[in-house]
């Protein structure tokens, strides 16, 4: 897996707290950590931005058509 930040090598690492243990991908180069929650939130954010961009492009096209 490649790091989305620096394109470095990611390795699976175990993280633990007093009551919580989880696994996440950690970049060997920059130290970025990607776990399931981070990945889901990024997916949702990218999907929302894509929908917003499509809507804005449609609005611009409608305005251009109306002006012509």
Question: Short summary of the structure?
Answer:
The chain has 68 residues and is α+β, with helices and mostly antiparallel strands. The protein has one helix at 36-67, and strands at 10-16, 21-27, 33-34. Strand 1 and strand 2 form a beta hairpin.
Key features?
single chain, 68 residues, alpha+beta, 3 strands, 47% helix
Strand content: 15-25%
Q: What is the number of beta strands?
A: 3
Strand order of the largest sheet: 1-2-3
- Report the biggest beta sheet as strand number plus sense, adding barrel if it closes: 3 strands, antiparallel
Mean pLDDT, as a whole number? 83
List the helices and strands and how they pair.
Elements: E1 10-16, E2 21-27, E3 33-34, H1 36-67
Antiparallel strand pairs: 1-2, 2-3
Structural summary, described in words:
- The protein is elongated.
- The chain has one domain (10-67).
- Strand 2 (21-27) and strand 3 (33-34) form a beta hairpin.
- It has one helix at residues 36-67; strands at 10-16, 21-27, 33-34.
- It has a 3-stranded antiparallel sheet.
- It contains 1 helix and 3 strands.
- The chain has 68 residues and is an alpha+beta fold.
């Amino acid at each position: 897996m490649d790091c989305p930040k620096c394109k470095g090598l990611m390795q699976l690492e175990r993280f633990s707290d007093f009551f919580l243990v989880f696994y996440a991908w950690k970049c060997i180069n920059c130290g970025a950590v990607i776990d399931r929650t981070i990945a889901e939130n990024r997916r949702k954010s990218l999907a929302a931005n894509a929908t917003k961009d499509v809507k804005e492009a449609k609005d611009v096209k409608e305005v251009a058509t109306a002006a012509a």
